[in-house]
TrEMBL record:
Family recorded in the similarity comment: Belongs to the LysR transcriptional regulatory family.
One BP term from GO: DNA-templated transcription
PANTHER family registered for this protein in UniProt: HTH-TYPE TRANSCRIPTIONAL REGULATOR, TRANSCRIPTIONAL REGULATORY PROTEIN
Keyword terms, alphabetized: DNA-binding, Transcription, Transcription regulation
Domain HTH lysR-type as annotated: residue spans: 5-62
Matching InterPro entries: LysR-type_TF_proteobact-type, LysR_HTH_N, LysR_subst-bd, WH-like_DNA-bd_sf, WH_DNA-bd_sf
Matches recorded under Gene3D superfamilies: 3.40.190.290, Winged helix-like DNA-binding domain superfamily/Winged helix DNA-binding domain
A GO term, aspect molecular function: DNA-binding transcription factor activity
Designated name of the protein: Transcriptional regulator, LysR family
Entry annotated with the keyword Membrane: no
Length: 289
Protein backbone atom coordinates (compact mmCIF):
# COMPACT_ATOMS: atom_id res chain seq x y z
CA UNK A 1 0.00 0.00 0.00
CA UNK A 2 1.30 3.46 -0.90
CA UNK A 3 1.08 5.78 2.12
CA UNK A 4 2.59 8.77 0.34
CA UNK A 5 0.37 11.74 -0.41
CA UNK A 6 0.15 13.25 -3.88
CA UNK A 7 -0.78 16.82 -4.80
CA UNK A 8 -4.48 15.93 -5.01
CA UNK A 9 -4.38 14.92 -1.34
CA UNK A 10 -2.58 18.10 -0.29
CA UNK A 11 -4.96 20.22 -2.35
CA UNK A 12 -7.98 18.54 -0.81
CA UNK A 13 -6.77 19.43 2.70
CA UNK A 14 -5.83 22.98 1.65
CA UNK A 15 -9.16 23.76 -0.02
CA UNK A 16 -11.18 22.40 2.91
CA UNK A 17 -9.13 24.57 5.30
CA UNK A 18 -9.61 27.65 3.08
CA UNK A 19 -13.33 27.12 2.57
CA UNK A 20 -14.12 25.79 6.05
CA UNK A 21 -16.51 23.23 4.59
CA UNK A 22 -16.68 20.32 2.19
CA UNK A 23 -19.25 22.10 0.03
CA UNK A 24 -17.08 25.20 -0.37
CA UNK A 25 -14.00 23.12 -1.13
CA UNK A 26 -15.92 21.07 -3.68
CA UNK A 27 -17.02 24.24 -5.46
CA UNK A 28 -13.43 25.50 -5.68
CA UNK A 29 -12.22 22.20 -7.10
CA UNK A 30 -15.19 21.69 -9.42
CA UNK A 31 -16.28 18.46 -7.78
CA UNK A 32 -19.01 17.25 -5.41
CA UNK A 33 -19.56 17.17 -1.65
CA UNK A 34 -19.52 13.32 -1.53
CA UNK A 35 -16.24 13.24 -3.45
CA UNK A 36 -14.60 15.65 -1.01
CA UNK A 37 -15.95 13.60 1.88
CA UNK A 38 -14.37 10.43 0.49
CA UNK A 39 -11.06 12.19 -0.25
CA UNK A 40 -10.53 13.70 3.19
CA UNK A 41 -11.47 10.45 4.93
CA UNK A 42 -9.02 8.57 2.71
CA UNK A 43 -6.21 11.03 3.51
CA UNK A 44 -6.85 10.73 7.25
CA UNK A 45 -7.00 6.96 7.04
CA UNK A 46 -3.73 6.88 5.11
CA UNK A 47 -1.95 9.07 7.65
CA UNK A 48 -3.65 7.56 10.67
CA UNK A 49 -4.38 11.00 12.11
CA UNK A 50 -7.37 13.31 12.28
CA UNK A 51 -6.78 16.49 10.21
CA UNK A 52 -10.05 18.34 10.87
CA UNK A 53 -12.49 18.71 13.69
CA UNK A 54 -16.00 18.44 12.31
CA UNK A 55 -18.32 21.03 13.84
CA UNK A 56 -21.82 21.97 12.80
CA UNK A 57 -20.40 25.32 11.74
CA UNK A 58 -17.72 23.75 9.54
CA UNK A 59 -14.33 22.05 9.39
CA UNK A 60 -11.48 23.35 11.56
CA UNK A 61 -7.90 21.99 11.17
CA UNK A 62 -6.34 20.13 14.05
CA UNK A 63 -2.70 20.70 14.93
CA UNK A 64 -1.73 17.95 12.47
CA UNK A 65 -4.09 19.49 9.93
CA UNK A 66 -2.45 22.91 10.31
CA UNK A 67 0.95 21.36 9.62
CA UNK A 68 -0.34 19.70 6.47
CA UNK A 69 -2.08 22.89 5.32
CA UNK A 70 1.18 24.83 5.73
CA UNK A 71 3.03 22.23 3.66
CA UNK A 72 0.31 22.34 0.99
CA UNK A 73 0.62 26.14 0.75
CA UNK A 74 4.38 25.83 0.24
CA UNK A 75 3.91 23.25 -2.49
CA UNK A 76 1.30 25.40 -4.23
CA UNK A 77 3.52 28.50 -4.07
CA UNK A 78 6.50 26.59 -5.47
CA UNK A 79 4.38 25.12 -8.25
CA UNK A 80 2.97 28.51 -9.24
CA UNK A 81 6.41 30.13 -9.21
CA UNK A 82 7.85 27.35 -11.38
CA UNK A 83 5.01 27.64 -13.91
CA UNK A 84 5.41 31.41 -14.10
CA UNK A 85 9.15 31.05 -14.61
CA UNK A 86 8.71 28.50 -17.38
CA UNK A 87 6.02 30.61 -19.02
CA UNK A 88 8.35 33.59 -18.85
CA UNK A 89 11.06 31.61 -20.59
CA UNK A 90 8.66 30.89 -23.38
CA UNK A 91 7.79 34.57 -23.66
CA UNK A 92 11.44 35.68 -23.43
CA UNK A 93 13.37 33.28 -25.63
CA UNK A 94 16.80 32.20 -24.49
CA UNK A 95 19.66 30.05 -25.67
CA UNK A 96 22.23 29.98 -28.43
CA UNK A 97 21.40 30.92 -32.03
CA UNK A 98 24.09 30.32 -34.67
CA UNK A 99 24.09 33.13 -37.23
CA UNK A 100 26.06 32.71 -40.45
CA UNK A 101 27.01 35.80 -42.43
CA UNK A 102 30.01 37.44 -44.11
CA UNK A 103 32.68 39.54 -42.46
CA UNK A 104 31.68 42.42 -44.75
CA UNK A 105 28.05 42.35 -43.68
CA UNK A 106 28.99 42.09 -40.01
CA UNK A 107 31.38 45.06 -40.22
CA UNK A 108 29.24 47.22 -42.46
CA UNK A 109 25.66 46.46 -41.43
CA UNK A 110 24.98 43.84 -38.80
CA UNK A 111 27.14 44.63 -35.75
CA UNK A 112 24.91 47.56 -34.62
CA UNK A 113 21.82 45.48 -35.35
CA UNK A 114 23.12 42.64 -33.19
CA UNK A 115 23.64 45.15 -30.36
CA UNK A 116 19.98 46.22 -30.69
CA UNK A 117 18.86 42.61 -30.80
CA UNK A 118 20.77 41.94 -27.58
CA UNK A 119 18.89 44.75 -25.84
CA UNK A 120 15.58 43.38 -27.03
CA UNK A 121 16.35 39.69 -26.35
CA UNK A 122 18.93 39.54 -23.55
CA UNK A 123 18.43 35.81 -23.11
CA UNK A 124 19.69 35.00 -26.60
CA UNK A 125 23.38 34.37 -27.23
CA UNK A 126 24.41 34.79 -30.86
CA UNK A 127 27.28 32.70 -32.19
CA UNK A 128 28.29 34.51 -35.38
CA UNK A 129 30.09 32.42 -37.98
CA UNK A 130 31.89 34.57 -40.55
CA UNK A 131 32.53 33.05 -43.94
CA UNK A 132 32.00 33.79 -47.59
CA UNK A 133 31.14 30.12 -48.03
CA UNK A 134 27.51 29.04 -47.95
CA UNK A 135 26.75 27.49 -44.56
CA UNK A 136 24.54 24.43 -44.75
CA UNK A 137 21.44 25.07 -42.65
CA UNK A 138 20.20 21.54 -43.30
CA UNK A 139 23.08 20.10 -41.27
CA UNK A 140 22.78 22.75 -38.54
CA UNK A 141 26.03 24.51 -39.42
CA UNK A 142 23.91 27.57 -38.69
CA UNK A 143 20.38 28.27 -37.45
CA UNK A 144 19.98 31.53 -39.36
CA UNK A 145 21.89 32.93 -42.33
CA UNK A 146 22.04 36.52 -43.57
CA UNK A 147 23.80 36.54 -46.90
CA UNK A 148 23.65 37.86 -50.46
CA UNK A 149 22.05 35.56 -52.99
CA UNK A 150 20.30 35.75 -56.34
CA UNK A 151 17.68 33.40 -54.90
CA UNK A 152 17.58 31.19 -51.78
CA UNK A 153 18.01 27.44 -52.01
CA UNK A 154 14.63 25.71 -52.47
CA UNK A 155 14.91 23.81 -49.17
CA UNK A 156 15.22 27.04 -47.14
CA UNK A 157 12.68 29.64 -46.10
CA UNK A 158 13.25 33.31 -45.48
CA UNK A 159 12.74 36.90 -46.43
CA UNK A 160 14.42 39.36 -48.76
CA UNK A 161 15.86 42.13 -46.59
CA UNK A 162 16.88 44.51 -49.35
CA UNK A 163 19.20 44.96 -52.29
CA UNK A 164 22.96 45.37 -51.96
CA UNK A 165 24.11 47.97 -54.45
CA UNK A 166 27.69 48.28 -55.68
CA UNK A 167 29.82 51.13 -57.02
CA UNK A 168 33.43 52.07 -57.68
CA UNK A 169 35.14 53.85 -54.78
CA UNK A 170 38.43 55.73 -54.50
CA UNK A 171 40.30 57.41 -51.69
CA UNK A 172 39.30 61.06 -51.56
CA UNK A 173 42.93 62.10 -52.15
CA UNK A 174 42.89 60.45 -55.59
CA UNK A 175 40.63 63.22 -56.96
CA UNK A 176 39.15 61.31 -59.88
CA UNK A 177 37.68 63.79 -62.37
CA UNK A 178 34.10 63.23 -63.60
CA UNK A 179 34.02 61.30 -66.86
CA UNK A 180 37.43 59.69 -66.31
CA UNK A 181 37.83 56.41 -68.16
CA UNK A 182 37.76 53.75 -65.41
CA UNK A 183 40.23 51.61 -67.33
CA UNK A 184 42.84 54.34 -66.91
CA UNK A 185 42.74 54.15 -63.11
CA UNK A 186 44.83 51.84 -60.91
CA UNK A 187 42.56 48.98 -59.84
CA UNK A 188 42.36 46.62 -56.89
CA UNK A 189 40.61 43.42 -57.89
CA UNK A 190 39.48 40.16 -56.32
CA UNK A 191 41.97 37.32 -56.26
CA UNK A 192 41.07 34.00 -57.82
CA UNK A 193 40.66 32.45 -54.36
CA UNK A 194 37.98 34.99 -53.44
CA UNK A 195 35.49 33.31 -55.72
CA UNK A 196 33.88 36.55 -56.90
CA UNK A 197 33.36 35.59 -60.52
CA UNK A 198 30.67 38.18 -61.14
CA UNK A 199 33.00 41.07 -60.26
CA UNK A 200 35.90 39.60 -62.24
CA UNK A 201 33.64 39.26 -65.28
CA UNK A 202 32.45 42.86 -64.97
CA UNK A 203 36.03 44.14 -64.64
CA UNK A 204 37.09 42.14 -67.68
CA UNK A 205 34.16 43.34 -69.78
CA UNK A 206 34.69 46.98 -68.76
CA UNK A 207 38.42 46.87 -69.50
CA UNK A 208 39.51 47.29 -65.86
CA UNK A 209 40.97 43.82 -65.35
CA UNK A 210 44.19 44.73 -67.15
CA UNK A 211 44.64 47.81 -64.94
CA UNK A 212 44.85 45.81 -61.69
CA UNK A 213 47.83 46.77 -59.50
CA UNK A 214 46.81 44.56 -56.58
CA UNK A 215 44.44 41.71 -55.76
CA UNK A 216 42.99 40.67 -52.41
CA UNK A 217 40.73 37.85 -51.30
CA UNK A 218 38.04 39.69 -49.29
CA UNK A 219 35.76 42.69 -49.66
CA UNK A 220 37.10 44.20 -46.45
CA UNK A 221 40.56 43.77 -47.95
CA UNK A 222 39.43 45.70 -51.02
CA UNK A 223 38.14 48.48 -48.76
CA UNK A 224 41.40 48.61 -46.79
CA UNK A 225 43.42 48.81 -49.98
CA UNK A 226 41.27 51.67 -51.31
CA UNK A 227 41.60 53.51 -48.00
CA UNK A 228 45.38 53.17 -48.29
CA UNK A 229 45.26 54.87 -51.70
CA UNK A 230 46.48 51.85 -53.64
CA UNK A 231 43.77 52.24 -56.24
CA UNK A 232 40.04 52.05 -56.88
CA UNK A 233 37.75 49.06 -56.33
CA UNK A 234 34.14 48.01 -56.48
CA UNK A 235 32.59 47.98 -53.00
CA UNK A 236 29.12 47.54 -51.56
CA UNK A 237 27.58 50.99 -51.20
CA UNK A 238 26.81 50.39 -47.51
CA UNK A 239 30.58 50.18 -46.94
CA UNK A 240 31.58 53.06 -49.17
CA UNK A 241 28.93 55.55 -48.03
CA UNK A 242 29.76 55.02 -44.35
CA UNK A 243 33.51 55.50 -44.90
CA UNK A 244 34.44 59.18 -44.81
CA UNK A 245 37.80 58.50 -46.49
CA UNK A 246 36.17 57.19 -49.66
CA UNK A 247 34.30 58.83 -52.53
CA UNK A 248 32.09 57.17 -55.10
CA UNK A 249 33.32 57.23 -58.69
CA UNK A 250 30.50 57.26 -61.22
CA UNK A 251 27.08 55.64 -60.90
CA UNK A 252 26.06 52.46 -59.13
CA UNK A 253 26.71 49.27 -61.11
CA UNK A 254 23.33 47.66 -61.68
CA UNK A 255 24.88 44.47 -63.05
CA UNK A 256 26.52 43.77 -59.68
CA UNK A 257 23.51 44.48 -57.43
CA UNK A 258 22.36 41.45 -55.43
CA UNK A 259 19.57 40.70 -52.97
CA UNK A 260 20.24 40.24 -49.24
CA UNK A 261 18.37 37.30 -47.72
CA UNK A 262 17.41 36.23 -44.21
CA UNK A 263 17.22 32.43 -44.26
CA UNK A 264 16.56 29.45 -42.04
CA UNK A 265 15.53 25.84 -42.32
CA UNK A 266 11.75 25.17 -42.12
CA UNK A 267 12.24 22.88 -39.11
CA UNK A 268 13.86 25.70 -37.10
CA UNK A 269 11.57 28.67 -37.71
CA UNK A 270 9.14 27.72 -34.92
CA UNK A 271 11.89 27.38 -32.32
CA UNK A 272 11.35 30.32 -29.96
CA UNK A 273 14.91 31.65 -29.94
CA UNK A 274 15.29 31.29 -33.72
CA UNK A 275 11.89 32.89 -34.26
CA UNK A 276 12.95 35.88 -32.14
CA UNK A 277 16.04 36.46 -34.31
CA UNK A 278 14.04 36.06 -37.51
CA UNK A 279 11.38 38.46 -36.26
CA UNK A 280 13.92 41.13 -35.34
CA UNK A 281 15.75 41.13 -38.64
CA UNK A 282 12.50 40.70 -40.53
CA UNK A 283 11.22 43.90 -38.97
CA UNK A 284 14.36 45.64 -40.24
CA UNK A 285 13.46 44.78 -43.82
CA UNK A 286 14.10 47.81 -46.01
CA UNK A 287 15.90 49.69 -43.22
CA UNK A 288 19.26 47.94 -43.47
CA UNK A 289 20.11 48.99 -47.02
Amino acid sequence: MNDKLDWTDYETVLRIAEAGSLTGAAQRLGTSHPTMFRRINAVEDRLGVRLFERFRTGYVPTTAGEDLVAAARQIEALTNETERRLAGRDLRPSGVVRLATTDTLLAGLLAPEIACLREREPGIVLEVALSNAVSDLSFREADVAIRPAAAPEPHLVGKRLGRIRQAVYAHRSLEVAPGTDLAELPWIGPSASMGYGQLRAWMRDSGCEAACVARVDSVLGLQAAVRAGIGVAVLPCYLGVSDGELVQVGKEIDALAVDLWLLTHPDLRRTARVRAVLDYFGERQGALL
